[in-house]
Write a structure and sequence with these properties.
CATH superfamily: OmpA-like domain
Radius of gyration: 14 Å
Order of helices and strands: EHEHEHE
Number of helices: 3
Number of domains: 1
Number of strands: 4
Strand content: 15-25%
CATH topology: 60s Ribosomal Protein L30, Chain: A
CATH class: Alpha Beta
């Protein structure tokens, strides 16, 4: 499973903030269980955002998104040595940013299992 990247679809944040929305807990709790069951897993958490707004602020926001997810995991017993984080702002879009539907695809947190 090493090298697999997964987008955490339900891990969303309140607009222009790094406050997790309530529905994120289901998917994050599943990740916690998977990491506890696979103690050899190390993960890289990447925050991504759309291209609306100031690029510097968006980069900072994406960094915080990744860190918030990492904190969620460590508070539930995953040691922080198993987690790295990064924020990419809007530099790695998966949608074209021309419509809200496409921009929403770019607002995401992804994990890569190492």
């Amino acid at each position: 499973m090493s090298g697999v990247t997964l987008i955490l679809r339900t891990v969303q944040f309140e607009q222009s903030s790094y406050v997790l929305m309530a529905e994120a807990s289901t998917e994050l709790d599943k990740l916690v269980r998977s990491m506890k069951a696979n103690s050899h897993w190390h993960i890289h958490i990447a925050g991504h955002i759309d291209n609306v707004g100031d690029p510097r602020l968006n980069l900072a926001l994406s960094v915080h998104w990744a860190k918030v997810v990492a904190t969620y995991l460590t508070r539930r017993g995953i040691v922080d040595e198993r987690i790295t984080t990064d924020g990419f702002g809007s530099s790695q879009p998966i949608g074209d940013n021309t419509t809200e539907g496409e921009r929403s695809k770019n607002r995401r947190v992804a994990i890569t299992i190492r």
